[in-house]
């Protein structure tokens, strides 16, 4: 079971598929065991083997499981309509990010209608502290998580704008707390920008972060002058839905 799940995790985001040899290296198992596991998952619909290239990709069974998870998760049922309305108004990709163990996870996303857009995959995870949503989740999330992330410094550099030092990260978190939101420009990938705001639940506990992501050219000063207060209002709307008191929100 462990290796089967590791194979599925490894295949996430590999749109062109991967070979059996790639799977063996990634999961660190021998070829015969990988063949047995992949054969079983292919038979059950979790994997698809493309005969022309001899590569594996994720199968349709995972889609049905994802839809079942969405139907049975009350948080997603609350969040998704708000994200859809935001995409209609902002025309950029909007996602909802939460803390999952020591990583951030996108549990819901609606993509921009533009042909050139920033893509956020539902169920995808990312490491702290890069990106706007990471700063929001660290700012209002558990102190234990902040301490763990602080101990990992220095951080991996993805672009020239990536925050890599502990001092930079602490300054960014302080700015996030002071403003109530954070902007990120080309921190994780060149040509992209993001805006993130917190969503709270009962007793002011952090639920997650709304993140608006787009290409840098469209995320202009004029766009952000409109998008920042708009996103904050949508976050307040969601916070009320999750039981946060008006006095705390204001």
How would you characterize the overall build of this protein?
The chain is an alpha+beta fold and 250 residues long. 47% of the residues lie in helices and 20% in strands. It has helices at residues 2-11, 20-27, 31-43, 61-72, 74-90, 132-140, 143-151, 166-179, 221-241, 246-249; strands spanning 47-50, 55-58, 93-100, 103-110, 125-127, 182-185, 192-200, 206-215. The model has no long low-confidence stretch (mean pLDDT 90).
Describe the structure concisely.
With 250 residues, this protein is an alpha+beta fold. The chain is 47% helix and 20% strand.
Q: Can you give keywords for this protein?
A:
six-stranded antiparallel β-sheet, 250 residues, Arc Repressor Mutant, subunit A, two-stranded antiparallel sheet, WH-like_DNA-bd_sf, 47% helix, Beta-Lactamase, alpha+beta
Number of helices: 10
Count of strand segments = 8
Q: Count up the domains.
A: 2
- At the fold tier of CATH, the topology name of the largest domain is Beta-Lactamase
The CATH superfamily title of the largest domain: GAF domain
**In the CATH classification, which architecture of the largest domain applies?**
2-Layer Sandwich
Instruction: Assess the beta-strand content as a share of residues.
Output: 15-25%
Query: What is the average of the pLDDT values?
Result: 90
Rg, Cα atoms, Å: 20 Å
| CATH C-level class of the largest domain | Alpha Beta
Read across the widest sheet, the strand sequence of neighbours is: 5-4-3-8-7-6
Q: What is the H/E string? A: HHHEEHHEEEHHHEEEHH
Uncertain stretches = none
Characterize the largest beta sheet: strand count, sense, and whether it forms a barrel. Answer: 6 strands, antiparallel
Distance between the termini: 47 Å
| Coarse structural class | alpha+beta
The portion of residues assigned to helices is: 40-55%
Which of globular, elongated, flat, extended, rod-shaped describes the shape? Answer: globular
């Amino acid at each position: 079971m462990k290796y089967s799940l590791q194979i599925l995790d490894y295949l996430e985001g590999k749109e062109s598929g991967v070979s059996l040899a790639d799977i063996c290296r990634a999961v660190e198992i021998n070829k015969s065991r990988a063949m047995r596991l992949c054969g079983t998952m292919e038979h059950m619909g979790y994997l698809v083997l493309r005969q022309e290239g001899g590569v594996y990709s994720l199968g349709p069974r995972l889609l049905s499981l994802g839809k079942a998870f969405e139907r049975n998760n009350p948080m997603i049922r609350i969040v998704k309509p708000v994200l859809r309305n935001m995409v209609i108004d902002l025309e950029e990709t909007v996602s909802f990010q939460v803390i999952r163990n020591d990583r951030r996870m996108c549990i819901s996303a609606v993509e921009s209608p533009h042909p050139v857009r920033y893509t956020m995959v539902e169920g995808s995870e990312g490491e702290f502290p890069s990106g706007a949503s990471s700063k929001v989740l660290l700012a209002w999330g558990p102190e234990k998580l902040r301490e763990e992330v602080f101990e990992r410094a220095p951080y991996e550099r993805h672009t020239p704008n990536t925050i890599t030092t502990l001092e930079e990260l602490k300054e960014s978190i302080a700015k996030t707390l002071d403003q109530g939101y954070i902007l990120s420009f080309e921190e994780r990938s060149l040509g992209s920008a993001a805006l993130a705001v917190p969503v709270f639940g009962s007793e002011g506990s952090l639920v997650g972060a709304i993140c608006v992501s787009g290409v840098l050219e469209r995320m202009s000063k004029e766009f952000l002058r409109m998008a920042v207060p708009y996103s904050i209002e949508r976050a307040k709307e969601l916070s009320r839905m999750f039981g946060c008191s008006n006095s705390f929100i204001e």
